[in-house]
Design goal:
single chain; 260 residues; alpha+beta; 2 domains; four-stranded antiparallel sheet; 14 strands
């Protein structure tokens, strides 16, 4: 009987191939997962599956955390400045909505017209007059902002409102739909193969690229798997977070399924 002997090199190659077959199927399954198994709903690190923020836009902060109009403005001065723009007779609502941004030291660094129901030149004039009536704000620990709603009707009036924040999201709608249907990140089996779902937290830059990514559930921190996931996610682009129409850094969590 003839015996086929394998050289040491052939044995090493066979063991390497066997190990590759046993390793988690990362790249192809990540590709499939990111095209059909992720989503744009954010989940905070340490939480189970409580949604941090949905894909819909919403208030940046609670309304009661913002200053009152009289704290933000010299109301009497602004009333006098806006008087020539107010109609003599009652008319339809005439509103200008401004977005104001402040640094930590209380310096106003942005005043943009977000919405208006008057002619554009008049809205620009209101923006300039508001700047002349803004008060110096006290220092805070972080930068902040608010919306200022100005009623230009004869009755007049001012309201301070939260800015509107829109979280980042995956540009592929199928990714968003899959995350809505996502129920658990536990280990399960599909077609006889062990399957895991990783929750990957992605930092999205204002330009729409993934600036960083980390596994927050389902994999070891700093593992080879996490590095592979990070490199793979960085190949995708996202719609960035938007704060009152301006792209800002944001964060979202996606679900990635792997087998092995």
């Amino acid at each position: 009987m003839q015996v086929n002997r394998r050289s040491p090199g052939m044995e090493r190659a066979g063991r390497a191939a066997s190990a590759r077959n046993r390793a988690p199927r990362l790249a192809p399954l990540l590709a499939a997962a990111l095209l059909a198994g992720c989503g744009a709903r954010g989940v905070p690190a340490g939480a189970d599956l409580e949604v941090r923020r949905g894909t819909a836009c919403g208030p940046e902060v609670p309304a009661d955390s913002l200053p009152a109009p009289a704290e933000l403005l010299d109301v009497a001065r602004l009333d006098a400045l806006l008087a020539p723009l107010r109609p003599a007779e009652p008319d339809s609502p005439r509103v200008v909505l401004l977005s104001l941004s402040y640094e930590e030291d209380g310096t106003n660094v942005r005043r943009d017209v977000v919405q208006h129901s008057v002619e554009p030149p008049q809205a620009d004039t209101v923006q300039e007059l508001v700047f002349a009536a803004l008060r110096t704000m006290p220092e805070r620990d972080t930068a902040w902002g608010a919306r200022l709603r100005i009623d230009l009707s004869r009755a007049g009036g001012y309201a301070v409102e939260p800015r509107v924040y829109c979280p980042p999201r995956a540009r592929n709608r199928q990714l968003q739909e899959e995350m809505r249907q996502y129920l658990s990140s536990g280990v399960r089996y599909r077609r006889g193969r062990r399957e895991r779902t990783l929750l990957v937290e992605v930092d999205v830059a204002p330009a729409g690229y993934a600036s960083d990514a980390r596994i927050v559930r389902g994999g070891g921190q700093g593992s080879t798997l996490e590095r592979s996931v990070r490199d793979f996610v960085r190949a995708f682009t996202f719609d960035p977070a938007v704060l009152d129409g301006v792209p800002v850094p944001g964060r979202l969590t996606i679900a990635v399924r792997i087998q092995g």
